[in-house]
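Running co-folding for adenosine-5'-diphosphate.
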Amino acid sequence: MDIEQLKDTFRQRYGREADGAVRAPGRVNLIGEHTDYNDGFVLPIAVERETVALYARREDEEGNFASLQADEPASFTLTAGPAIRPGKPAWANYCRGVAAMLFREEVPLVGVDVLFSSDVPLGGGLSSSASLEVATAYALLAAAEQFKAVPDMRLAQLCQEAENKYADSPCGLMDQAIAILGKKGRALLLDCRYRTTRQIHFDNPDVVAMVVDTHVKHEIAAGGYARRRAECLRACEHMHIKALRDADLQTIAGNEGDGRLSYPEVHRARHVVTEIQRTLDGAQALEAGDYEGFGKLMYRSHESLRDQFEVSCDELDAVVESASKCDGVYGARMTGGGFGGCAIVLARADKADDIGKTVSADFEQRFGHAPSLFTTHATDGASVLW
Ligand code: ADP
Ligand code: MG
């Protein structure tokens, strides 16, 4: 939907013009999977899919939120603070959480009417949830003229806390951080322990990231994620370290030899330790414009997620395998938590169409349905449109 149409819809719904508009993108992680909760590094980019929020200030302190992607609107008093509780409709819990967190941060909020429209697929692994949170935060801050009140990384943490507490989702900081700190032509190297960042060049116009959504989510996804986290934690306890970031392959082998680490722990720990190194090496490769080198690290990452961490599935393996046979592909891997969801392919832009067709056809022949696919460059984090 274009912005003029969205303005019309806003006028019809609220009976007046919007004062302004903000946007916040979705994201995809290039490398660094299951490293965030192990105090490691991640390397996401903001993608060219985003949530737009039109807003108009109100004279009172009410917040009215509607979305083209949801049937029911939601209303609550923005200045009610801790009295704002999760409720129905559930999608608006992301907005409730953000308002409650900004209030706790003592940001003076003003009433707003908000209309969202997003082309980030909901629940598709590209973090529509963080883009909704950050778009909410930007709309509230813009309406109250309070942008200077909250530094970027703090805002990311508040949005993360909103999702943890109001949407009951134990997500890390990556999605909110990239939705705010993303830069056109850059990937964001985020140190999940110290919450520091480095912008990494990813700006060759002839290279694209292709996101392939398998449209499958295997039953074990939720339980599997929790189990992996628990296994990582147990591995740390057995090795007497704070997080797997503090381990190395030698320590793991020593603890395995001594019988302190059992089968799954050894493999989980190995994945995390090698993945953290691959993420750092990957950042260096991108900085040097070495896409072949980066692509190799993507394949190694996928193999490790498949064989050591055991979170891949046939559909994701099939995408990676079929992509790896195409001309113009540098590398491919599953991205996100695993057990379904998306794979990412790093490819030459001029070959992307052919690669997409081959990967789609192979997939459909084997699994009976087509994946969806789009290509993107790294884009800017949240911004004010007008
Ligand atoms: P992901 O973040 O990978 O897209 P999540 O399950 O974390 O998946 O978040 C998806 C949820 O976020 C949706 O079910 C919905 O509640 C909410 N959401 C995201 N974007 C919108 C939107 N534009 N309008 C309404 N709800 C949205
Ligand atoms: Mg999400």
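Result summary
The chain has a mean pLDDT of 97.
Residues 127, 129-130 surround magnesium ion (ligand 2) (CB under 6 Å).
Job closed.
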